[in-house]
């Protein structure tokens, strides 16, 4: 037969997408989630998505079928870079750029090169930047050989033992013909043997079959390996056919020259979809099977047993994974109503309906006919994207709700669009937090005309999935045989690409029933091939077929051998599903090893990553040591591991007992190559002692072994590298045993290593204590979400059954935690109940539970003490939430007798008491910003309701480098020491650095990132001293409690609006504390800060025109007298919440950062500082008055002459007055641009605070508590000084009142002559101004005012004298 030829017809064009650089940010946080889409000749391919990266790297190859036509130049390859809105929603276009390549630019494989193409626009209005690196080339692949159909064998030729009936699970080997044929193009082809080489093996097989009845044995090895790179990824299953013998060749006709069929490996994707349709993480497994022609032999039993073990492991793994995905997330959009819509039907009305679109899903409401204020009250349900996509369901597609006019009800020639609303996915809240919000309808284009608003409730819920229906049990093997025999002849003829199919003429072997009595001889094949559901106990595999290897180098008495034997679960307890009998596979002609091409697994879920990569701080080298476990140690030992290097040592905790001795702890030692730190060697030793024992005086009998490493040979690892693998090391030097091993990993890294956060540090305080080291680690905290609780007390009824005393009053008191407020006291009315209509405001923190209640009580005040009549409670979880100023439904509360009333009148009388009813209205206002910071240092102006949050404008990155020259805060061991750590606060996020022990120049080099929603906010950084833990032996008390508190060392505040965009500011900021002795500099802190905006500069400038506080602060403002009390309550709640964290952020730290540590009274220093601030701010007014006086006095004749000329010019052209003033102000700003601050202003400013040389007495008064704790004579002296200051203020207020009363006396006729003169003068001025042009009047008045001093009188002007003589009310004040 002639050799098979190949033709180069299929050409594959490979577009290798490497990376892109400097893309535009699209997601509102300064980054993008780009992916690449390539289009060529009607084919489209996409790459994976790289989240939160402006310089993505794909390194993927995209293949296209390429059949070059006659004119290849007409074909164009277009590669576009797009932003995935599921990763970062954006209101703008997701287009990032594209390139177009002509087909003439394609080169052959081997001639390609990495080329960076600049991204181009798609239209004139696009804004793109950056470039993309591509490799574009084409390759030629040989065509697949033509399919050959082997002749069908006669029914009598195929004996029962002709081929091996290999038993396997149904998903593994059954029905693989179509699946393998579909993967023919993707799998490599085996070489075909020559045509003449097939005759000799066939003759040998015929001779062997004629001489012997025993079928030849063949070894068929099938390896199945399941891997799972991630929890949500399906395992990749590889099936590799290793060997087969030539004796299993098929019998062919003598005249046939058809080559034997090619072996076809089983597709791995089919196995994945069949066995593992749910999320799981299976363990790697391999099954080796010896296949023989007779399935009833011992080898056949080993096949069935091995496959059952494999099926049992996969089934048990899948059963466990079903529990993981028990819920599905749904988005609920409640369309309530719309108001004030546009008429569209020509009769002054419309027939509107709402249409909602989310993630490719569309829902509609019913149509309300002829109504401009329709009410739907319908709930539309949407499905969130699947969790396997790798995006957060609450940060995905935007929701669009459009209101349209139904043209079927009211025909209209105009557009039926009435308006739309687009909501970001970040505004979705969980069920229970939703509120009815009215959104103004927006235009779809510039030419639309819309009006009105729509009320929506948008939230999401987690709906539990229905339990999966049990699969029907497969029929028994004996029952399935006839059906299979009937169905087989109807199957189409098999080709050479499907060697696994069985011949239609070969009937299946009969099988024994499951309930048949077992025979003493070897187990027949029917017992293995029967239905697994009919067998009560799964058959066990042959011990000889799968021997259990013994552990190597295992000591005689070790703990892990006993534990491993106890923990190993028996396999017989797992459910077993025996597969049905499989068709006999077609034997292969020769020994072939077929490499299976594994399908490319889907990319792992892309998690959002912070932009911060420690690029603002210095890298700190560390030596990391990870101690994992040990084996071979004595069973009764209690070991711990001691790590020592360079004078530093650390000990692990006591080992956890299990299969091994487990520790899994990481240690980090500072590495300084200049000083050869931490030392040349690293010692790791194992001791049979408590962790806090002194090993220097321990006996050698407690030493179990050790290791020694050279620190110069430690592998260096950077942050992008994966974690270093641990290794087993043989312990040396132990006296009690030999052959013990310790699993250890050592590497050199920086603070960017993922193991650094939880690692033990040598510079941490109380380094030998694991608990103290855990509390000194760096952590990030989040403040609770605070809500404003508004209680409106309206009225009460049936409060008193007996006539009250005349002077009795009644009031309502409400209590929420430590907050207690009371309405005004109202006299008890004889005819009706008391009424208040008063609002009481509280601060409440999420989460709201049933135990959190608002207690409302009714009090009757008669005398000094109030008497509670009755009380009621309202659970916070049941209170309605609102985000606007709409009124909520009021309720009547039944007041029950209180405990105090029962004590006063007795329990029996209290049972018959009735406290009456109270009419209240209570709600949680989500439209307010509940601030816990002072207004001048606020870092977040967002309201409590997440539905009202604006998109972020950018991010602020803070690098806390370290401190310089800190002062000692306490004495330890006869010397001063400081254990410093820093705390940064912006918005609800708090960042705490690790504590560095006993260092006056600590270096943290930690970096944090916050989203920015308003540029006019303040970032606060404070430095504190971490106190040592109080031992139980020291006892408690005030001194111990004061010593256990963190002491502040100073804070720095930086306003973000003073920072330039994208610029890094790094410098030293002073830490100044105001103490009773005066201002004291505690040291300097080095910070690096960068403010990066995600959008354009117009978005940032637009934020300056928006109100800082939410709309509710302007529609229904909070009274000024309640603002500070609410802020202090919010700060106290936040501090208590942070103090309950683990490790806790101390309460005194949070309150000091929020300026809520303790209320302070009057401060003379601050009064003078504020006066100087006002004087400095208004200094330009004094400078302008001084300049005018100098010009009027002719001190500079040239300037005075120019002033006359300008006066004439402005008088004749008054339209130039405003431009001249604004141009002058602009010139002043440009002139001062040269002296603009190059760095953020240091905080605090000692000079502006008047703290350079303060008076000791004034400072003592400032730090005095309320009420005062000073002696009576000191309080009397301060009172006298305050009286003197009050007298001066009294005189100033009197002078202002006098001038205002004189101005009123001009027309009050208190002085008839003065008023008459003033009225006559006004009439004269009116007549003159009517007859004389105003220009002439202005020039004459200006020249008169600027006349030379020689023409002036040194006495006051007559006008001033006339005004000073007017009467006032000063003489009438007693």
From TrEMBL:
Highest taxon in the source lineage: Eukaryota
PANTHER family xrefs: MULTIPLE C2 DOMAIN AND TRANSMEMBRANE REGION PROTEIN 16, PHOSPHORIBOSYLANTHRANILATE TRANSFERASE ISOFORM 1
Keywords of the record: Membrane, Repeat, Transmembrane, Transmembrane helix
Keyword Transferase: no
Amino acid composition bias (Low complexity), ranges on this chain: 476-489, 524-545
Region (Disordered): 176-215, 469-612
InterPro entries cross-referenced by the UniProt entry: C2_dom, C2_domain_sf, C2B_MCTP_PRT_plant, C2C_MCTP_PRT_plant, C2D_MCTP_PRT_plant, MCTP_C, QUIRKY-like
Biased composition (Basic and acidic residues): 181-192
Gene Ontology cellular-component terms listed: membrane
Similarity remark: Belongs to the MCTP family.
Subcellular location: Membrane
Main location group: membrane
Segments traversing the membrane: 1317-1346
Record organism: Dichanthelium oligosanthes
Segments forming domain C2: 1-116, 308-438, 601-729, 765-893, 937-1069
Compositional bias of kind Pro residues: 577-588
Protein name in UniProt: Protein QUIRKY
Membrane topology: Multi-pass membrane protein
